[in-house]
Amino acid sequence: MLTSKERFLAACRNEEVDRPPVWIMRQAGRYLPEYMELRAKHSFLDFCKIPELAREVALQPLSRFELDASILFSDILVVPEAMGLTVDYPKGGPTLAPIVDDDSGLDSLQMPDVDDKLGYVGEALEAIRDGIGPDKALIGFAGAPYTLATYMVEGGGSKKISKLKLLAFQKPAFVDCLLDMLTDVVIDYLKMQIRHGADVVQVFDTWAGELAPVDFARFELPRIKRIVEAIKPLGVPIIYFVNGVAGLLDLLPQTKADVLGVDWKISIGEFRKRVGDNFAVQGNLDPLELYGDTGRIRQRVREIHRESGGKGHIFNLGHGVTPKTPIAGVEAFVDEVLKLGDK
To answer: Which stretch of DSSP H or E encloses residue 172?
Structure first.
């Protein structure tokens, strides 16, 4: 029988496995009462920067659910912070300062030594690895260049996320420079995570789905290809997840990522047809499905499994688990995936 780690890595390689592996984006967090109990005593940044706390919260979901992988507990915005920005996490969402929207902002950015500036992430990975043991997969991650740049030019989150797009049309040379700088740092950062024990790395592209295909091809695709090319020789699978991916399906195969994430806005069967059979896929249950009847959740797991074709599929949600998700919904989701291995 395969271990969770063996199953996860084989699925990433698009190989046949006994059942699909399963993990959940944002699986450690606000929907867990034990997380909220700990959160009352510590800031979010404490969880990111104190390896013992990162370990504790990363292990919490594995204590409840038979997941195949643990993921580093951190935040994509540690990269802009390492480049010299001040990042805070008030109630309304993250804020970054100063805003990087002109050449002087570019000039003020640092190209960090990631072992120095982000060494606490490496320590957290080692602590989590020690906690999960050798039989579970450990996932590292980073934000994609376009998504990181979006936060840096907006100074935080935004409902419209339009400022970077405007700059791309008005000052493409500026945007190219910013994206290239971020690509270099992300490559160094992911390599550091692999040195500290990550078995797989995921690149989160929350905002690239806002781009027209021609603009994705112009601004983000070359950077993702460069990240993949830099990581591939290390023998660690790469998952690329774009939120709102449906408009980019013809371009995704060009990334050469091992695993392509898919949200719930397209069926996983149609996604498979469009991207081809050379990639593993990850997804794609709507996170809000977990609020519903557990019988329906189990039915949807079986439907997605049939549509996926089985081979090279990593079960996950189409985005992160939301804060008020019922524990019973998560339990039904994970349990039904486990049952797919029953003969």
So the answer is: helix 172-195
